[in-house]
Design a protein that fits this description.
The protein is an alpha/beta fold. The protein folds into 2 domains: about 35 residues; about 80 residues, no CATH class. Helix content is about 45%, strand content about 20%. The chain has 5 helices and 5 strands, in the order ααβααβββαβ. It has a 5-stranded mixed sheet with strand order 1-4-3-2-5. Strand 3 and strand 4 form a beta hairpin. The longest helix is centred in the first third of the chain and has 21 residues. The radius of gyration is 27 Å and the shape is elongated.
């Protein structure tokens, strides 16, 4: 018996553009229910991520808070996060949050404190590049 070497069929490499086009066509043929469920899942997933994200402090804000001896308790942090959530609901992006004699400039979208100062440093200061403000009692 003679062993024969059989040449395998040539491998076709698809053009990535064509592959993407085929995937796009396949998505177009999916039922609207499947596409809607995917969209709903993505929206819910992003919402849950945003809700669970704790507020953070920029290096500048952390430095200023240490220099100015501004300390936050867990309760203060929760109140600050509550204020951020309220402003986010109203569509704020960069906000001044005044809480317990301390002013915070916060990026609402990033949930990040940009800077912080107490009332003695805030006197005669002008806050620019903010689109909203809240006083937390």
């Amino acid at each position: 018996m003679v062993n024969r070497i059989v040449n395998p069929p040539p491998i076709r490499i698809q053009n990535p553009v064509q592959k993407t086009h085929r995937n796009h066509q396949a998505q177009e043929h999916q039922s609207p229910d499947i596409l809607q469920k995917r969209t709903q899942f993505g929206d819910i997933f992003r919402e849950k991520l945003d809700v669970n994200q704790r507020i953070s402090f920029s290096a500048h804000a952390s430095s200023r808070m240490m220099q100015r001896d501004i300390q936050l308790t867990e309760n203060d942090l929760n109140r600050l996060e509550g204020a951020v959530d309220k402003i986010a609901e109203k569509g704020g992006r960069e906000s001044l949050i005044m809480m317990d004699d301390i002013s915070y400039v916060v990026s609402i979208q990033n949930k990040k404190v940009i800077t912080a100062m107490d009332s003695s440093q805030a006197k005669d200061n002008i806050f620019t590049n903010i689109d909203s403000a809240i006083i937390v009692r």
